[in-house]
Every structure is written in C-alpha cells, then in structure tokens.
Design goal:
By secondary structure, the chain is mainly alpha-helical. It folds into 2 domains: 1-34; 37-128, Winged helix-like DNA-binding domain superfamily/Winged helix DNA-binding domain (Arc Repressor Mutant, subunit A, Orthogonal Bundle), CATH 1.10.10.10. Helix content is 68%, strand content 11%. The termini are far apart. A 3-stranded antiparallel sheet has the order 1-3-2. Strand 2 (82-87) and strand 3 form a beta hairpin. It is built from 6 helices and 3 strands; from the N terminus they run ααβααββαα. The chain has helices at 4-34, 39-49, 54-60, 66-78, 101-104, 107-128; strands spanning 52-53, 82-87, 94-99. This is Helix-turn-helix domain-containing protein.
Amino acid sequence: MESPINTFVETQEAPCRANCSENLSAVEDAIYVIGGKWKLKIIIVLQELGNVRFNELQRMISGISAKVLSNELKDLELNGFVKRVVHAEQTPVVVEYISTDYSRTLKTVIMSLSEWGRKHKNNIREDVF
C-alpha cells in the first residue's frame, strides 16, 4: 500500500514539472529573440538615446563591427524591437533607428538585469578582495 505522503508528492510533482517546462520554454523563447552579445546592448542604447544613426550606434557599442551591427539591427527590426526610419528628403539620405513601444516592454527586465549585475560585481569584488 502506498503511503499518503508518496501519493501527495506524486500528485504535486506533475503540475510542478509542467510549470517548470513552460517556464523553460518561455525563457528559451526570450533568449532566442534578445540573447547574444549585442542585442540587449543595442536595445539599451536606443532606449536611452532615442533616434540614433548607424555610425553613432556603432560608436556607442564598443567592439561591434558594422556587419554584425547591421545584421543585429535587421533581426531586431524583424522581431519588432527596432524601427528603421529613412529620411529620404535629406541629402545625403539619413537613416535612424529607434526603439519601439514593444521594445520598451523590456525596460523592467533590463533594469532588473542591471541591478543584479551591479550586485553581482560587488559580490565578486568582496569575495576576491
């Protein structure tokens, strides 16, 4: 005969596993869209500065090549995080990038990551020194 505790654990385990699986899937989706070395950096710069031209964006994000920046911007645009604005009436033609309202839904996530990063850096410093 099975004990009541084992039965309780088994009945509670299935929903927990399903919830865990859902959470893992959701995080995988998020990381797929905004993961990598550059995407969040690009989003942060655009949120902080507003309309930014390509060369200014490249200067703000040290170490990123023009080719990689171009590819990342295209990917972010396809996913609705960045809007590319072309001012064809100007000579030469001016292209600016801006963050979208959808991109700004990441603001609390970015702020939480930033705060965690500061705390982590302080913890490492305290442990090392």
